[in-house]
Amino acid sequence: MGPHPAVAAIRLAVRRVLHDVLIDLSAQRTPEPHEARTERAPGHALVLVACSGGADSMALASALAFEAPKLGIRAGGITVDHGLQPGSDLRAAEVVARLTALGLDPVDSVVVSVGRDGGPEAAAREARYAALDAAAERHGAAAILLGHTRDDQAETVLLGLARGSGIRSLSGMAAVSGGLGAARRYRRPFLHLDRQTARKACMVQSLPVWDDPHNTDPAYTRSRLRHEGLPALEKALGKGVVEALARTAQLSRDDADALDAWAAEAEASVRDASGLLECAKLYALPPAVRRRILRRAAIAAGAPAGSLFARHIEEVDRLITGWRGQGAINLPGRVVAQRQGGRLVIRQG
């Protein structure tokens, strides 16, 4: 008799991602003449799971512990203590004990200091990913697995829609994304699985889980969306809203990736011999492509990507499409955009 369907589903999802990690590692190295070119060739690769102790990440940790040894991969774990709640250090110690009991090694607990920029959720996320990046570098990990589910993806799409920041926000979370100096560090095996599957997998395996009180705190936007917004949508529109939003994320990501590639190719054609952007050539491009070029140029000049919003790019875009002799546009990071003699100059002010 095979495993419970929920357990089988999470293990299959992790197995597929681990195969992808091995393929990536194989592509990055040249085997010695006596070695066979197989998926196992990289050997001893380390994959970490980021675990809060909640149902999603505990299910992910259990699946990694089960699948990794069969592929010759070392499995480890890391938990991040944000220090935002009383007893968070004890919670982190419990997670370390649970991951160790699953057979993961190494297992780390990292304490971070959460700032205030961008609000509490954004600040905690920034601190968390910085800690995960540092852990990956410290241990030489090939990848870090994250437990985001289809439900998380649906919430992310709705949050992006509310911000009105364009198709990239509607793309949600990527199945594969980068960290500092690693384009494919983060893997999200559960984006096609619902939250209930992960919780069920924990229950049938008798895995203890921790329910973060922040997930039910109405002070947090995502919590309100999860417990009020999505249920209201499902009541009004019927079941299947989460699946539809997740599907929208994938379709939007495909479109956004194509437009990003178009913009990258077109950028060289709209620059003059000195490297400045020519306004007439920019004007001739489709708006979606032109604004991507403007965003790339602003980031290259030093504007922080996380602080550069659609409204900033729209203001710069008006220097191209609605030129009335207006002055310079101030962007985050002390970057200034201005039109000079038919050229767009974006630089540090």
From TrEMBL:
Single Gene Ontology BP annotation: tRNA modification
Reaction(s) this enzyme catalyzes, per UniProt: cytidine(34) in tRNA(Ile2) + L-lysine + ATP = lysidine(34) in tRNA(Ile2) + AMP + diphosphate + H(+)
Organism whose genome encodes this protein: Streptomyces jeddahensis
Binding of ATP, residues: S52, G53, G54, A55, D56, S57
Domain tRNA(Ile)-lysidine synthase substrate-binding stretches: 277-344
SUPFAM superfamilies xrefs: Adenine nucleotide alpha hydrolases-like, MesJ substrate recognition domain-like
Subcellular compartments: Cytoplasm
Keyword Transmembrane (UniProt): no
Main location, first listed in the record: cytoplasm
EC number: 6.3.4.19
Protein's UniProt name: tRNA(Ile)-lysidine synthase
